[in-house]
């Protein structure tokens, strides 16, 4: 079993991960030896704070070990992905990779004899969405029937939220510029399930939302588009005026790092409605649940 994108997982499997993550968070001592003797390879083409720290800390807390591999400091820059992954599989039990292109995570998975986790690619960020679902459930008590408004760039985080939320009964209302809409197969899934809608207007998307979510306007690898994007996205800033259109008890979410006073105003990210650090913390518990599940150490 791999975790490449949430489209590959049905709702019951996603729910199992959320439930397991809650158990691991509440009683970490019950899992402190769950992955004893197991090794995780963490392969990074992109820089990382939360993904690296949560996976490495998670393996340690489960009794296992993690190896950090900077792509640029390995022979992945010389050999083929397939050859290097086949070698890596001789040493470790599971691989997590954070890459620029989805084609690379597919190549890693295709060559690997070990489970593979997508730590992020240009199209998907499944681990982030799982952590967000855990956070939503904690803050709102249950998931079904909630409305999450996503405002900004229809990027990898947005794609994964549409799929994960839709499968668990959360309606995602996305507001993006027309030229930056979410990935079509993610959006189509949501439309087919009745749990996704798109609007060009942030105000229309945010109205009566239980949660308002945004992300950076310029993701890693898109730096050459910065000027164009900065002309288009200012109307999509999440500020106090926009948050006032959501429900009074709405929460604000961001996957971080945040570019303050660009995609989100300080007054919002620093407000009592903000749960961004709870989201970051829940990455640890979800990562542990994914590792346990993929290595067959959970029901």
UniProtKB/TrEMBL annotation:
Superkingdom: Archaea
PROSITE patterns per record: CARBAMOYLTRANSFERASE
Domain Aspartate/ornithine carbamoyltransferase Asp/Orn-binding: 144-292
Gene: argF
Residue sites binding L-ornithine per the record: 156, 215, 219-220
Protein name per Swiss-Prot or TrEMBL: Ornithine carbamoyltransferase
GO annotation, cellular component aspect: cytoplasm
Lineage: Archaea, Candidatus Iainarchaeota, Candidatus Iainarchaeia, Candidatus Iainarchaeales, Candidatus Iainarchaeaceae
Coiled coil: none
Similarity comment text for this entry: Belongs to the aspartate/ornithine carbamoyltransferase superfamily. OTCase family.
Residues at which carbamoyl phosphate binds: 48-51, 75, 98, 125-128, 255-256, 283
Gene Ontology biological process terms, A to Z: citrulline biosynthetic process; L-arginine biosynthetic process via ornithine
Reactions it catalyzes: carbamoyl phosphate + L-ornithine = L-citrulline + phosphate + H(+)
Keyword Transferase: yes
Any Pfam family: OTCace_N
SUPFAM superfamilies: Aspartate/ornithine carbamoyltransferase
UniProt keyword list: Cytoplasm, Transferase
Residue stretches making up the Aspartate/ornithine carbamoyltransferase carbamoyl-P binding domain: 2-138
Subcellular location(s) of the protein: Cytoplasm
Species, as recorded: Candidatus Iainarchaeum sp
GO molecular function, one term: amino acid binding
EC id: 2.1.3.3
HAMAP family named in the record: OTCase (MF_01109)
Main localization of the protein described in the UniProt heading: cytoplasm
């Amino acid at each position: 079993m791999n975790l490449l994108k949430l489209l590959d997982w049905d709702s019951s499997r996603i729910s199992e991960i959320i439930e397991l993550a809650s158990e691991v968070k509440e009683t970490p001592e019950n899992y402190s030896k769950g992955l004893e003797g197991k090794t995780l390879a963490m392969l990074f083409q992109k820089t990382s704070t939360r993904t690296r720290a949560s996976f490495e800390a998670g393996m340690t807390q489960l009794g296992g070990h993690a190896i950090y591999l900077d792509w640029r400091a390995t022979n992945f820059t010389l050999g083929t992905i397939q050859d290097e992954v086949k070698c890596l599989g001789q040493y470790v039990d599971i691989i997590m990779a954070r890459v620029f292109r989805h084609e690379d995570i597919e190549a890693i998975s295709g060559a690997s004899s070990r489970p593979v986790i997508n730590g992020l690619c240009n199209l998907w960020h499944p681990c982030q969405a799982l952590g967000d679902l855990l956070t939503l459930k904690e803050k709102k008590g249950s998931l079904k029937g909630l409305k999450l408004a996503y405002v900004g760039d229809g990027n990898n985080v947005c794609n994964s939220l549409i799929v994960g939320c839709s499968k668990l009964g959360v309606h995602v209302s996305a507001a993006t510029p027309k030229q930056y809409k979410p990935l079509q197969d993610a959006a189509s899934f949501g439309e087919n399930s009745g749990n996704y809608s798109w609007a060009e207007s942030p105000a229309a998307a945010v109205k009566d939302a239980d949660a308002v979510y945004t992300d950076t306007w310029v993701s890693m690898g898109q730096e050459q588009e910065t000027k164009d994007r900065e002309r288009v996205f200012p109307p999509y800033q999440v500020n106090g005026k926009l948050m006032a259109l959501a429900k009074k008890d709405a929460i604000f979410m961001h996957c971080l790092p945040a570019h303050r006073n660009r995609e989100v105003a300080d007054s919002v990210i620093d407000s009592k409605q903000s749960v961004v650090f709870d989201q970051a913390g829940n990455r640890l518990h979800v990562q542990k649940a994914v590792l346990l599940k993929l290595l067959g150490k959970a029901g």
